Amino acid sequence: MQDFIELWKEGRTRFTKLLDATQEADLTKKNGNSPNSVGFLIRHIAEVELLFAKNIFGLAEVKIVAKTLIAGKDTGEWTNLAELKEMAEYAAALLEKAILTTKDWSEVIETKEFGKKTKAEAFGRIVTHTAYHSGQLALASKYGK
């Protein structure tokens, strides 16, 4: 179990280091013609981590309204850095708890988003999801306007 936590935490540093450096003025930045702002990406990463904690790893206590997924696009409303950081911390705490309480990593989960996966495979999915969007976040933060 500890190996999964260490892997997840190390992978998530791509996100947390960017989050630590983000300023309120960065939140509306977009890279080129990208539809997603820095604020949207932060919110989206946190939402999906919470959805995985709840729906994949079975942590019933998770409270989440996935606004970025519901909207399906950046609506420009994610401009409060303190709230975004708080949500990212909440997501981290609950995803870590969900990972720690997972007993059967070979259990198969089925979702409409990615079909049938074992919990171990789904774990790989959330680690790479966060890393993927962290790359977008880095580019938007550095080069965005």
Structure description:
By secondary structure, this protein is mainly alpha-helical. It has one domain (2-143): Four Helix Bundle (Hemerythrin (Met), subunit A). It has five helices and two strands. It has helices at residues 2-21, 38-56, 67-71, 81-101, 119-143; strands spanning 108-111, 115-118. A two-stranded antiparallel ribbon has the order 1-2. The N and C termini lie far apart (41 Å). 32% of the residues are buried.
Brief overview:
By secondary structure, the chain is mainly alpha-helical. The chain is 62% helix and 6% strand. It has a single domain, classed as Up-down Bundle (Four Helix Bundle (Hemerythrin (Met), subunit A)), CATH 1.20.120.
SS class: mainly alpha
How are the strands of the largest sheet arranged? 1-2
CATH class: Mainly Alpha
The percent of residues in helical segments reads 55-70%
- Poorly predicted spans: none
Mean pLDDT: 96
Domain tally: 1
Q: At CATH's second level, what is the architecture?
A: Up-down Bundle
User: Overall 3D geometry?
Assistant: globular
N-to-C span: 41 Å
Beta-strand content: 5-15%
User: Can you tell me the CATH superfamily?
Assistant: dinb family like domain
Q: How many strands, which pairing sense, and closed or not: the largest β-sheet?
A: 2 strands, antiparallel
